[in-house]
Specification:
The structure is a single chain. By secondary structure, the protein is mainly α. The chain has 3 helices and no strands. It has helices at 2-20, 23-45, 52-72. α1 (2-20) packs antiparallel against α2 and α2 (23-45) runs antiparallel to α3 (52-72).
């Protein structure tokens, strides 16, 4: 039930953001935002990523995701 409440709240915030901003700006943010949050949880809280090579791959993917969201917006 708690996850459903969070999901519903996220949808409401997405619709509010789309109302204030245009769809071309709010969609890339809403598409990349949850991935970044889950990435940070995985790295900082659960320690899922280990090793320098894996951090380089993770950083490259993170950078590409941010750049693509900026360019799409």
């Amino acid at each position: 039930i708690f996850k459903g409440i969070i999901w519903g709240l996220a949808n409401v915030c997405y619709f509010m953001a789309t109302g204030v901003l245009s769809q071309s700006i709010s969609f890339p943010i809403s598409a990349v935002g949850p991935q970044i949050v889950s990435l940070l949880w995985g790295v900082l809280v659960f320690r899922e990523i280990r090793g320098a090579k894996n951090f380089i791959i993770l950083g490259s993917g993170f950078t590409i995701a941010i750049i693509s969201a900026i360019l799409l917006g």
